[in-house]
Write a structure and sequence with these properties.
CATH superfamily: Peptide methionine sulfoxide reductase
Number of strands: 11
Structural class: alpha+beta
Strand content: 25-35%
Oligomer: single chain
Strand order of the largest sheet: 5-6-10-9-8-7
Largest sheet: 6 strands, antiparallel
Number of domains: 1
Radius of gyration: 16 Å
CATH topology: Metal Binding Protein, Guanine Nucleotide Exchange Factor, Chain A
Distance between the termini: 43 Å
Number of helices: 3
Shape: globular
Helix content: 10-25%
CATH class: Mainly Beta
């Protein structure tokens, strides 16, 4: 089992400390600077599932309504499935009714945007600022306070829960 699958399995079955969301070990990659990583296509294929590779590296889209993260309501952080960079806090998530996990804001500096002309009208595509992985598109039809909707492919992120602390009493 590789680290990525272990972290995802752990996030689904147990509470993970918030500090774990900031782990950014680059396995086999070349560090371009303190924030960017670069891997070969073969290294990305080894690191990601075929579905994740299609979305993150080929700028594909998963089918609407297929992500279990659509119904994720627990406190925590959504991280990039490509490099573990924190992208969204759970407080930024909302139900857009589109079939994809949606967020009204991102963690500062976590994404970069570019224009996408793949359809008839131009759209704004966003990528992880660390690894360049494609996550989705941003639209101007979200809720306040930003009015934005970051429509994210669920397969491109993992959710890490915020720890629940049990109140201890001293004897």
């Amino acid at each position: 089992m590789n680290r990525r699958r272990f972290v995802i399995a752990l996030a689904g079955s147990a509470t993970v400390p918030l500090w774990l969301t900031h782990i950014s070990t680059v396995r086999g990659g070349k560090t371009l600077d303190s924030n960017k990583i670069e891997l070969s296509a073969a290294e990305w294929r080894n690191r990601l599932t075929p579905e994740q590779y299609h979305v993150l590296r080929d700028e594909g889209t998963e089918r609407a309504g297929t992500s279990p993260l659509n119904d994720e309501k627990r406190d925590g952080t959504f991280i990039c499935a490509g490099c573990d960079q924190a992208l969204f806090h759970s407080s930024m998530k909302f139900d857009s009714g589109t079939g994809w996990p949606s967020f009204f804001d991102v963690i500062e500096g976590a994404v970069e945007t570019k224009r996408d002309f793949k359809l008839i009208w131009p759209r704004t595509e966003y990528h992880c600022s660390r690894c360049g992985g494609h996550h989705g598109h941003v639209f101007n039809d979200g809720p306040k306070p930003t009015g934005l909707r970051y429509c994210n492919n669920g397969i491109a992120v993992a959710h890490l829960t915020t720890p629940s602390f049990v109140k201890c009493s001293h004897v």
